[in-house]
Write a structure and sequence with these properties.
5 strands; 60s Ribosomal Protein L30, Chain: A; alpha+beta; 5-stranded mixed β-sheet; 38% helix; 13% strand
């Protein structure tokens, strides 16, 4: 009687699918997920390490390096300010020259295309022809567009890095003014100061521009006080080292760039109406 009962129990268990049935196959189990359910924070050991900041830190920097960097920044800022000042002065110079050029400009050509002479203004051809009559053997004289430039080395006019005229410099300025008045009487005359790029050895001047301005002013004062040139026909410009005529790489080149240039304009001061600016014909 017991054997049938046991068989019946086994059949019932198999039919019901009991989880403890040793004859039932186990369903496949997928890999375990490490993602936490919604609303639950992930375990700390599963989080990605924080990104390391690559920004420089000044906490552990050497104070001397920081001070040196600050000093360089200040020097660069000061140099930039000096360059801005030089550019402003150069712009002012260009503006003044442009104003003079506009004041003397006339109609470029007649209706038939033939250039007309402006009353009171010398043509470039006349300016160039008159250059040969300037008795300045030790000066460099050249035509620059419509103006005549007379170049005198600053070392022949001034003491070292100063604006003090040498005795021989005063004699040179007297001769220059005499010749300009003889060949170009009453013409506008620019006095331009130039320097080289070498550091100054005279503490009186903060920059080469200041030195070139002081030298141009000294020439201006000399012309007004001791020659027949009039203040109304003169103006001065300080270029500093901005306009070298040759390279500053050699001592000879630097000496050439230290100069005063006298710029004779084709118009006479106060020319207009029936006034004429043609040069005199006296020898």
């Amino acid at each position: 009687m017991r054997l049938p009962v046991i068989l019946i129990v086994i059949g019932v268990v198999a039919a019901c699918g009991c989880a403890m049935n040793p004859l039932k196959k186990t369903a496949g189990v997928g890999p375990a997920s490490l993602e936490p359910p919604p609303g639950v924070a992930a375990p700390a050991h599963t989080l990605a390490p924080p990104a390391v900041s690559m920004q420089p830190s000044f906490v552990d920097s050497d104070p001397r390096q920081l001070e040196a960097g600050l000093t360089r920044s200040r020097q660069e800022s000061q140099l930039m300010q000096e360059e801005i000042t030089a550019l402003r002065e150069q712009l002012a110079s260009t503006s003044s020259q442009l104003a003079v050029a506009r004041s003397v400009a006339g109609p470029p050509a007649a209706a038939g295309g033939i250039a007309q002479a402006v009353p009171g203004v010398m043509t470039p051809a006349a300016m160039q022809a008159s250059m040969a009559r300037l008795a300045l053997p030790d000066a460099d004289v050249r035509l620059d567009g419509s103006v005549v430039r007379i170049e005198i080395p600053a070392d022949r006019l001034f003491e070292g890095d100063t604006a003090n005229l040498l005795p021989g410099g005063a004699a040179i300025l007297t001769l220059v003014s005499t010749e300009i008045e003889r060949v170009y009487p009453g013409h506008f005359l620019g006095i331009e100061g130039h320097t080289d790029t070498e550091p100054l050895h005279n503490a009186s001047w903060g920059s080469p521009h200041q030195l070139s301005a002081a030298r141009a002013s000294a020439v201006f004062d000399f012309f007004i006080d001791r020659t027949s040139l009039r203040q109304s026909q003169l103006f001065l410009v300080a270029h500093g080292p901005n306009h070298p005529v040759v390279s500053n790489a050699t001592a000879a080149g630097r000496a050439r760039n230290r100069r005063i240039e006298f710029v004779v304009y084709p118009e006479a001061a106060g020319a207009g109406g029936g006034a004429t600016a043609e040069p005199t014909t006296s020898p």
